[in-house]
Amino acid sequence: MSDSTPDKRPSLLVRIFRVLSGYEIAVICLSLLFVLTFFGTIEQKWFGLWSTIHKYFDISSLIVVPTNGSGKVIFLPLPGAYWVIVVLGINMLCGAIIRARKGWRKFGVLLSHCSILFMLIAGAVSSVSKEEGHMRVLQGERSDYAQKLFKHDIEVFRYDENGDREPPAIIRSKYIKSLDEDETLRASFENFDFTFEVDQYLPFSVLALESSSQVAPEGVEVVDGFFISKTEKNIKQEEANMPGCYVSVKDKNGELIQRLVLWAGNPYPVSFTYEGARYGVTYLMEVWPMPFVVDLHKTLGEYHPGTSIPSWFQSNITKIDGNSNEDYEIVMNEPARHDGYTLYQAGYTAAAEGETPSSTFAIVNNPSDKWPEYALYASTVGLLIHFLVMLGRFAGSSRPKKNKTTEPSLS
């Protein structure tokens, strides 16, 4: 009777772990990041730093297609950098930390690996928790607030006897964006005895005026001569994508007071009258107060010949924070930083005759803004420790060994 040979093959989980921690995945991820960074650097020539970062590194970018200024594809589709970094982070955790050899001689290398992993985590935190907004400032003027990108609120307010706005009631963007095209959102207000019913929400839309040359498509509602229609997402300029919706204003008995069409690209209020009072409704980006003031002294820019695409623009500003004043020169790929806030030069509007030029700044508040800096410090310390340990081992091994001699014994 022969003895059975035990199965020494590793389990499925062990094999998966070995694959995830292998050098092959690290090489593939690092190569992809090099290629993505290379084409992103080329593409920012046409679209600027802000749009390119969103295209290549945003959490929503699963697949990236490198293109040039005319939209022509210049390379094969690539995975988004965010998800490549996620895979690389898992690979480092499994291979460079869990699977790596431990011991005091390996402390420096382990510290460096942990620092790099912490840097990758900083990027993930930035992608999901940072706040973004736009600030438009006319040359010679100041601003202390921005408007949050991709967060459009509906504000309802009453005009007083002097025609000034009273404090508004707000329907937040998160409730509106959760709507499907065939769903309705019902909202009531503490200070008003009418209700709103928001319907036909479109995340990407255009507002049009019906005329003999432009007729509303079949099934599209027209309100006071205006209608909104669905459009394709603008992948080159994310901030150019404007949502739209329709609103039914109803009294406390459910009777219709007014039907409204709202579009986020319209800066002017839509008004209606109820019980002798006049009300206004806006659908605009959420106001975001800044802890500092931007004073725009000079804005300069140029466009590519025959196009409306900026080839270069610059803003000279003073940042005023209490009694502290600091001067900055912001250009397309050189932002200004202040206590976790980063100001990018996102737009430039040349002045027509009799008008004032303006600059648009993209503002980002990132809670992990300093984390990569801390990770670099820790990684430097780790590599220095490892260098000193290896130097000590080398010095110890290179010392001449004393030959041991034995004296003859006297008998």
Strand content: 25-35%
Oligomeric description of these chains: single chain
**Number of separate helices:** 6
Number of strands: 18
Spatial extent as radius of gyration: 30 Å
Order of helices and strands: HHEEHHEEEHEEEEEEEEEEEEEH
Tally of distinct domains: 3
How far apart are the first and last residues' alpha carbons, in Å?
Answer: 64 Å
Ranges where pLDDT stays below 50 over 5 or more residues in a row are: none
List keywords for this structure.
four-stranded antiparallel β-sheet, 6 helices, ten-stranded antiparallel β-sheet, 411 residues, 3 domains, alpha+beta
How would you characterize this protein structure?
- With about 400 residues, the protein is α+β, with helices and mostly antiparallel strands.
- The chain folds into three domains: about 10-130 and about 370-395, no CATH class; about 130-145 and about 290-365, no CATH class; about 145-285, no CATH class.
- Helices cover about 30% and strands about 35% of the residues.
- The protein has six helices and 18 strands.
- It has helices spanning about 10-20, 25-55, 80-100, 105-130, 175, 370-395; strands spanning about 65, 80, 130-140, 140-160, 170, 185-190, 195-200, 205-210, 225-230, 245-250, 255-265, 270-275, 275-305, 310-320, 325-330, 335-340, 340-350, 360-365.
- The strands form four sheets. Strands 3, 4, 5, 12, 13, 14, 15, 16, 17 and 18 form a ten-stranded antiparallel sheet that branches. Strands 6-7-10-11 form a four-stranded antiparallel sheet.
- The radius of gyration is 30 Å and the shape is elongated.
- The mean pLDDT is about 85.
